[in-house]
Specification:
Elements lengths: L2 H18 L5 E6 L3 E8 L2 H9 L13 H10 L8 E8 L10 H10 L2 E8 L7 H10 L4 E4 L2 H16 L8 E11 L2 E12 L1 H4 L2
Parallel strand pairs: 3-4, 4-5
Antiparallel strand pairs: 1-2, 3-7, 6-7
InterPro entries: VWF_A, vWFA_dom_sf
Protein name: von Willebrand factor type A domain-containingprotein
Keywords: Membrane, Transmembrane, Transmembrane helix
Length: about 200
């Protein structure tokens, strides 16, 4: 599959996901050589989808993959959060090559903010670093998955939802969603990273 088509498919999966999260608060960020927030946290799903539709290859650079930096900066968004349950799902088919933030620093930031980071490597394991993704997941109390098809990705997200739903009723929660993409070598690779926080003290009343 051509990388541009792969990118379009992942964007479609994200759009479908956003549409299902009717009561969630989301944000949209991208990264390549650097990371930035394209849409601040909002309940306006239409605006997020519209901006996402205009995101093209190379919008945040085309030379490096700042995977650890993206995880680090995104984790910092939870610094002042008082919510008890914070979940992240990281989807990537690439490896960090920016060296802007050390892996241990990025993991520490996530752990300090009590974020569970589920990681998903897609495509060939030659493209992504399964060992690193597994380490991120295990260090934060989550799980690592791999998939080599679109259906496989969907199945993994369904499983993660079941794992988390088995703990508490999540009719009310706040979700923060980030979509990042970046090139590795000559190929476009992408990362889908989303966070959600559950207001457990409300749910447990």
């Amino acid at each position: 599959m051509e990388e541009n088509n792969k990118f379009k498919i992942v964007k479609k999966i994200l759009v479908d996901f956003i549409k299902q999260r009717k009561t969630d608060k989301l944000a949209l960020s991208i990264f390549a050589d650097f990371a930035y927030t394209a849409v601040p946290f909002t309940y306006d799903k239409k605006s997020i989808i519209k901006i996402l539709s205009h995101i093209n290859v190379g919008v945040a650079g085309q030379r490096k993959t700042a995977l650890y930096e993206a995880l680090f900066l995104s984790s910092k968004l939870f610094k002042d959060s008082q919510l008890k349950e914070k979940i992240a799902v990281l989807l990537t088919d690439g490896k960090d090559n920016a060296n802007s933030v050390p892996l241990d620093v990025a993991i520490k930031q996530a752990k300090n903010n009590k974020i569970k980071v589920y990681t998903i490597g897609i495509g060939s394991e030659r493209d992504f670093n399964a060992e690193i993704l597994r380490e991120i997941a295990q260090e934060t109390g989550a799980e690592f998955f791999s998939a080599n098809s679109i259906q496989g990705i969907k199945d993994i997200y369904a499983r993660i939802n079941r794992l988390e739903k088995s703990k508490i009723n999540i009719n009310k929660y706040e979700k923060k969603t980030y979509y990042f993409h970046y090139p590795l070598g000559l190929a476009l690779i992408f990362l889908f990273l989303y966070f959600w926080q559950r207001n457990t003290w409300i749910l447990n009343k």
